[in-house]
Amino acid sequence: MTLQESEEQYFFHTYNRLPVEIDHGDGVYLYAKDGKKYLDLFGGLAVNALGYGHPGILNAISEQCKKYIHLSNYYLQEPQIRLAELLVKYSGYRKVFFANSGTEAIEGAVKIVRKWGKINGKPDIVSFNGAFHGRTYGALSLMDRHKYRNGYEPFLDNCVSVPMNDVASLRNAINEKSSSVFLEFVQGAGIVSPAESFIDELKKLKERFGFLLVADEIQSGMGRTGKLFAFEHFSIIPDIVVVAKAIGGGFPLGAILGNSKVADVFEAGDHGSTFGGNPVACAAGIVVMDELMNGGIMKNAGTAGSILRSHLADLQREFPEIIKDVRGYGLMLGMELYCKCEPISAALLKRGILLNYSNENAFRFIPPLIINQEHIQFAIEQLRDVFRSM
After folding, report:
1. pTM of this prediction?
2. How far apart are CA 316 and CA 336, in angstroms?
3. 257-295 tens-digit pLDDT
4. Distance CA 31, CA 65 (A)
5. Can you name the residues that pair with 192 across neighbouring β-strands?
6. How far apart are CA 3 and CA 229, in angstroms?
7. Using CA atoms, how far apart are residues 255 and 103, in angstroms rounded to an integer?
8. DSSP conformation class of 185
9. How far apart are CA 213 and CA 224, in angstroms?
10. What b/e sequence results for 5-14 when a residue is b if at least 16 CB atoms lie within 10 Å of its CB, and e otherwise?
């Protein structure tokens, strides 16, 4: 029985798997069992910031596994404390809570704003159309995406989703009962960002009504856009930041960062997680933070991202009948097409390129942050050849 046949027999059918059996990874490449090499522009869906087989991560997890792999959160754990110190140092936020994933961190953030809102008489949560915050009920309650919501109703009350960059809708949705606004500064689905004029209005409303701003940086954070957080490209500072994906270096790890407004909302016993802040994941996270802030990886994300975006813009000028738009920041870029991505993705797969599309007509470039100009040039050449054959 093949792996594909076994998957079909034993798994709930929730994933559309690619027809590739991966043997191992190295740097920005994945190698199939048949020996074929693939340039990975998925990056584990923005998880593998340092690529595959990073020696610092391998050493850190090996050393931590020799000590202990898991402890109850009743115990103080040095890897957790050290990683929290780094996050606070480089982010400027006051407090940290560790979860296992982005979705769990979003759920924790929802609890924070609900409790804060209860204290302050503000029950409502505002979010934006096209967002993706996760697949659990709190996360789904913040989204308008029918693909993920249909059949799972009812969702949380007092949640409303409004169109991104629609100032009138934003004004109508926010009032004295608004506890919070959840915002992806770069939406992972479609790579859509708020306009600066929209952010200006959000700032005015925040000053007027005093709600909490929650930045979902699960995909866009940890250096992906060339800055530690995507919100740093805009003139507003959130009260809560939710991170995950890249922070664990490939291990399941998420975190909530909060400022002084929310630092004391949770009391002992209010929230928790059996595996949240796993010491092995935190040991890997320490390496990720060091590489981002001191090893030049975040700087490379900005530089390589500029090179990639420039090449994609050249392709747009060369193939205006195919490419509608190129957008994004750093190494979180989108290329919207006038046609469906699926046949192009299949053609790239045959050419040794793994490229993800989040919407049926929009590719998403989220490679490891260690990608270089040579890798980018190869990817562009393959894209150009595929477009020419269309």
Report:
1. 0.96
2. 10
3. 999 999 999 999 999 999 999 999 999 999 999 999 999
4. 26
5. 187
6. 38
7. 10
8. S
9. 21
10. eeeeeeeeee
CB atoms within 10 A of CB 146: 8
In the chain the domains, ranked by start, together with CATH numbers, are 3-53+297-388 (3.90.1150.10), 55-294 (3.40.640.10)
- Map residue 364 onto helix, strand or coil: strand
Instruction: Give the Cβ contact number of residue 348 at 10 Å.
Output: 22
Tell me the one-letter amino acid at 343: P
- Whether the CB-CB separation of 252 and 278 falls below 8 Å is answered with yes
Q: Which two tokens stand for residue 370?
A: 């260690």
Nearest alpha-carbon partner for 285 in 136, 80, 28, 105: 80
Sheet containing strand 362-365, strands side by side = 323-329, 332-337, 362-365, 356-359
Assigned token pair, 81: 């404390």
Counting beta carbons within 10 angstroms of the beta carbon of residue 221, is it exposed (0 to 12), middle (13 to 18) or buried (19 or more)? Answer: buried
What is the per-residue pLDDT across 195-229, written as a single tens digit (0 to 9) for each?
999 999 999 999 999 999 999 999 999 999 999 99
